[in-house]
Design a protein that fits this description.
Helix content is about 20%, strand content about 30%. It has about 200 residues and is an alpha+beta fold. The protein is globular.
Length: about 200
């Protein structure tokens, strides 16, 4: 699946994205699931460790099925009725006009999705790609999503990957959220290669 920030694609291999700080990228430190601005967001994100700092710079993955199950019944019911309107992040000032034109059209997804393989439900959204929750202002939407993430992502549902050179981490974007950690010496390199695999359109069944 082609990634939508073409300025960060590997020259000659446009299906591989480069995750690194040396070309101005900031670590994606907020919990998210990838490319929710697409009609068929990724089923999986694959990361390959190329250059790893001597300490820090890990990637954490949260089980959003467990997060959903831990919610009180009344909040699960409320969340199941909500949908996000998604587009490209507004704060990425280096996004190329052709990428914004191709990938910036609003896409609506449910905030709870059913996994197409095993039928479980998971909380599903990307807080910076969600322009708003339908029926709510952008400000109220961000406040709700931020509060929700702070309450439901607890240490017991998180796996933290401490990178070693040559590691491959495969993330199921349909059932998890992930985040990078910027707790490393920025004079050192943290370079990952990323491939994403197209999935199904998110649905709640």
């Amino acid at each position: 699946m082609r990634q939508h920030y073409s300025q960060h694609l590997m020259p000659g291999f446009p299906d591989i994205g480069l995750v690194w700080h040396r070309n101005g990228q900031r670590p994606a430190e907020r919990w998210h699931t990838d490319h929710t601005n697409r009609e068929r967001p990724p089923a999986a994100t694959m990361l390959y460790g190329v250059e790893i700092p001597s300490a820090g710079g890990g990637t954490s993955v949260a089980n959003m099925r467990a997060a959903y199950e831990a919610l009180p019944a009344h909040e699960r019911t409320r969340l199941e009725a909500l949908r996000t309107v998604n587009s490209l992040d507004d704060d990425h000032t280096d996004t190329r006009p052709e990428d914004r034109e191709k990938y910036g059209n609003p896409i609506v997804h449910p905030m709870v999705r059913t996994h197409p393989v095993h039928g479980s439900r998971a909380v599903y959204f990307h807080i910076t790609k969600a322009q708003c929750i339908e029926g709510m202002t952008p400000e109220a939407s961000k406040d709700y999503m931020k509060d929700l993430l702070e309450r439901i992502i607890q240490p017991e549902i998180v796996y933290h990957h401490a990178w070693r050179r040559g590691d491959v981490l495969v993330i199921d974007d349909r059932a998890t959220m992930h985040r990078a950690h910027g707790d490393y010496d920025r004079s050192q390199s943290r370079i990952l290669w990323r491939i994403i695999v197209e999935g199904d359109r998110p649905m709640l069944m």
